[in-house]
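Hi W.,

Here's what went into the run:
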Amino acid sequence: MSQTWQRDVPVFNVPIWTRPFKLFCGLGALGLLLVVYREIVGLGPASGMNDAYAWGIWKTFNTMVLTGLGSGAFAIGIAAWLFRREKLHVVMRTAILTSFLAYAFGLAMLGVDVGRPWNFYWFFFPWHWNLHSPLLEVAVCMTVYASLPLFLENIPAVLEYFYDQRKDLRPTIEKLEKVIVKGFPWVVSLAYVLPAMHQSSLGALMLLGGTRVSPLWQTPFLPLLYVWAAAFLGFAFVTATLLFSGVIWNRPLDLDVLAELNSITTWLIGVWLVFRLVDLTVRGQIVAAFHADLNAFLFWLEIAFLVYAVWILRDAGSRRSPRAMFYGAALATIGGMLYRFDPTTTAFQPKPGAIYFPSVIELLISIGFMSIGIAIFIFAAKVLAILPAPSALWHTMEEYKSRQARVRPFGYKTGAGQYATGD
Amino acid sequence: MAITRRDLLHKMTTGGAAVAAGGAVSTVALAGIAHAEEEGKLPPQAVGMLYDATRCIGCKTCVVACTQANGLTPDTRRDPLHQAPADLNNRTKTIIKLYKPVDGKEEFSYVKQQCMHCIDPACAAACMFGGLKKDVKTGIVSWNGKLCVGCRYCEIACPYNVPKFRWEGFNPEIVKCEFCKDRLAKGLEPACTAVCPKKAVIFGPRQQLLDEAKRRIADNPGKYYQERVFGEHEAGGTQVLYLSHVPFDKIGLPTLGDESIPHKYLKWQKRLYSYLIVPVGLYAALVGTIRKNWKSHEEHMQHEEKTTGLRAQL
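Here's what came out:
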């Protein structure tokens, strides 16, 4: 059943303290505990990293890949605000929250990964910046992005919660909202320039790896391909999140909005694939794709995921099948993640014979940080208006009385219990 | 730099966030330009080392002398009786390796490895706050623990796999050859060149050593591989030079081309960010467009509020 998403509504009819939520919290706590261990014993005993593979999954996966998934606020925001896809505004809060969590924990992992984090205070002395270092560009730009535009974009949903919960705060909140509304165009513009900068710089990171990165990935266009991959990853991941949340919390789906998200995703992937293959051919490195080795296998795996995703998504659009839409979005996400992960690890050969495999502690910390992100998302979706729904659901929620009384009625009535129905 | 630190601080305290951001941006832009002018040029008093693989007898005296001069703990982790590291590591700033083909050919060669002190070093280009920096006078690339955040990007960037990380402990360090700069300050030469019994590795101004290397090639036709000096042009040139009778790639010296790594791989990055013109221009264009779109969206939201009776959501 397709319904129209009109506004964001909290998930109000389920308890917060569920079993999966406890599991994510537990994994998160374990991860944080292991971070303490890592800080005491050092990186060597805690991780599988070595002098050849000096970067492990904390940087290459949690920072470099997962912030790609967190590019929904950037990519969908550009579609909504710049290209005026009005339909997409309703999913912006989902995009903004997932992006914020991906960035916040990507940055936190960067902090865990570096050996001398106390020296980060040079961040506040710009004349010490080496602006030509792609990693500095990433660290500075991501920190500014996550703590200013992305953080501010998340504020309205929180203000809305307090508006409904605390009548005494309403005048203050209305004043604050006016300020936010005034500054909003300036903030969202910054929210598109900064990710364009650091998502491309993430690609530039491996440029300095030079010929030690397989020619299937190493290209002068790596920054462009990375930022473009971030765009379709953002779309695909938000689509998958919307569909998954819709299924587990039994929320109505708006297949028109989802189909629009999917069609933009397919176009983004299509253009990206053509560019990638043309670049490989022009550089004459396409032959490396026909060697019988791991790199060639992973290259074709990545291409296969993305081509299959495009095929499924186009089909899902015409059949209007949410299940196919979810599979397509998930496949696109995996394909894009592979692309962003491979040049940092499997396709990076710093020294013959060198190997890297993450240690158990390394994996648990990585999983722990992701779990905290997921736990916060679950919590936020139940307390704040994050996930899109028809307006009717908002009215249902207002009449809903939870035994735990954790979620209280939101919104306000115009007249004496009279709602305009919208359409 | 046109804007001094004092100016910047003044602006930060008095002018509010916007001015501070502007000040920071222009300072960075200026710093970036100053940096771009300096790079890729041989420093005036560039020191150097010349290693001649045909003279080396593999005695490893240099390895031991390096450990002593730099106050390192001898690396006996592989073999408790001998200082026998497998590669450069956090206790080994220089190492002697042996190339010996298994197919029974006669030729073999020793090779000494340590930091090449590139003229345009990739490690320093990668370094976030200048923890690794090339000295403007001597050209020595050295590490400063006060500026290093321990990100290990230098290890990813160095084409010779030189910088090494101390993986144990809460207070790790980057370890690499720093040309015994403390000894140089005392008027001594680096420990490895001082002790070499065969003068296989010698110390001197880079230009002088390059002339010496070319003289050796001219005096001994056919002796040296390709009759050329490794490091004269490789990846923009290095201050440590190599002569060898076996192919350079056999003794771990990669084929890199003449363009320096930072210039080759980061030139577009630098152009895009120079003066921050592109990002600022992009921002201005976006603000213009989004403010226009914002107005129609606001009208749309007000209309929604009127028809549904629910507060609009941003």
